[in-house]
């Protein structure tokens, strides 16, 4: 199965570990991804406040390239913001004749037009519906053996367009984590906003959100996400969030955890690039102390200490 790959700006710069682990994991799964030639920024969250046509024309340009030059194959955007912006073109522009005409007029300056024939997909959609948990499990050579992991989705892959998951109770990561041998941490924060760009404009509000998410992850070895902005907020502002009641917890991209379970090394998955990943956590990934839980839920070491 072949897809067009839209890395976007974050995966090309601040979230390179997501890009590297994504490419490696997709190759291991036997999926063919071709990067869109000459792709450009989707506009992120800034274009909408500047110009309405630009807000749609920027992501539409990338879809137009796929439609014209790549046979209109499905586009996969791992970044949640990129996914949403590309998806908005199909939901808001296609079928809206006046807006479509204005967008195509802008695209015409580059010799392009978009007819709405490209399907926009998210990584989780592909893993859940094209690959499946069984195929993922078959690639596992280093099972996580019950590692408790909190699945964090964020907002943009769930709202306002619930394409492949329930925005109120997202679960699309759970079959993947189960296939890796992990135990899904029970919580209700998977779709809670991390504060997003409020971290730049109303930091106190965003820090409170991050603190609440981190606190709710108590008992999990790590939080896994598929959103670069969520990953940055949860990781880079942990010290401030801990002072507001949060806790320190490693934040990984889902594809990093998949790569580890597939037998790829920590260096190959660029764990050294994760600010929240400590030497202690990296050691635990090797020793897997969570697999020695007794029926009461305490580790063997904790039980022994309690008896003394």
Measured distance between first and last alpha carbons: 58 Å
* Shape designation: globular
Low-confidence stretches: 294-308
Query: What is the chain-wise order of helices and strands?
Result: EHHEHEHHEHHEHEHHEHHEHHH
Oligomer: single chain
CATH class of the largest domain: Alpha Beta
The helix content, as a percent range, equals 40-55%
Mean pLDDT: 92
Determine the strand fraction and express it as a percent band: 5-15%
The CATH architecture of the largest domain is 3-Layer(aba) Sandwich
Helix run count? 15
Strand order, sheet with most strands: 2-1-3-4
Number of domains: 2
What can be said about the biggest beta sheet? Answer: 4 strands, parallel
Radius of gyration: 20 Å
Say what the CATH topology of the largest domain is: Rossmann fold
Quick one: how many beta strands? 8
Structural class: alpha/beta
Keywords: Oxidoreductase
GO molecular function: CoB--CoM heterodisulfide reductase activity
EC number: 1.8.98.1
Enzyme class: oxidoreductase
What does this structure look like?
The longest helix is centred in the first third of the chain and has 18 residues, at 52-69. The chain is of the alpha/beta class and 308 residues long. It contains 15 helices and eight strands. It folds into two domains: 2-123, Glutathione S-transferase Yfyf (Class Pi), Chain A, domain 2 (Up-down Bundle); 132-287, 3-Layer(aba) Sandwich (Rossmann fold). It starts with a strand and ends with a helix. Helices cover 46% and strands 8% of the residues. α2 packs across α13 (254-261). The strands form two sheets. It has a four-stranded parallel sheet. The chain has a four-stranded parallel sheet with strand order 6-5-7-8, sandwiched between helices.
